[in-house]
Amino acid sequence: MWRSVRERDPHAARDLLREHLSSERAGSRKRLLNALLDTLTLDDHTLEPLLDTLTTDRSDDVRTLARTALHRLSSSAQNARHAARFAALVSLDKPGLLGRLTGQTPSTLTPPTAPDEHATRDGLPDPTSKDCLSATALLEHLLEHTHPDALLAALNIPPATLVNIARQHEHLPALAENTVSTEHTTLAAALLHDLPTHPFLLQIGPPETLSSALKQALRDRDPERLVALLGPHPGPWPPEPSAALLTALRDTIGPAHYAAAWGYRWAQLAELAATHAHPHTPHPDPLPADATDYAHRTLTELLGTLELRKQMWNDFGKGRG
Fold it and tell me: What are the tens digits of pLDDT across the range 32-42?
């Protein structure tokens, strides 16, 4: 119900959360926060006071979801506190000769020793407690749970320097996870130099980088890589990779008598193509005369589905195809 209100009137949906969320059962609070996260926008910054109170909720799941929402709202007080922790933790050193040649600035970590009154609500142990994090563990947490804009502003650094800090302390996965969850395009572009095959970074990085990776995977006839690249991509896919994939499916299915003989990933790609390829994709050349019945049946079903989606597109509009 709340999702439908959210679609019709986001302002009214926010008012409903403010008025009723705190009185709901933990399971309902969790479901509503998940629905909020699925559709979170910058306009939801007005919910920050509500979300902030939920960081001390009785339910661990609710606390985690509230912190996640505050993380994705770049100007939240939680992000500001994490940014201050990051600035106190990381010191950029003067680069030596190698650093000047490579353009990389070394960094030093200084763990906190003073009490932190907001640590628990922000999902961290107090620095003075027996459960305190090491400097490198704290850095990993901040790189994953602080909005990239706040991290960059904390030290007034470009994305490449932030990537260098993560690389130096072996926390690139944490920064990549953060980049994907916040859909931060400039940081994704910087990370792709170190993680060039990361499928989710490719989705939000420069379009030409994803296009190049797709073309290479298609040339290599690499179904595993194609699933990783195309799986997260919402449909309809652009016409060019759609056509190239149909050709690859046609070229590889001919001798197969059943799905396992074709390969699980190729069969998965055929299912993806049926629902995600561009409906107006031209049909590939016919199968060779010696192609199996399974190959003919599978390709005919796929092309028939695309024709149906094309007709729906023409009759009802782009969103229906």
Answer: 999 999 999 99
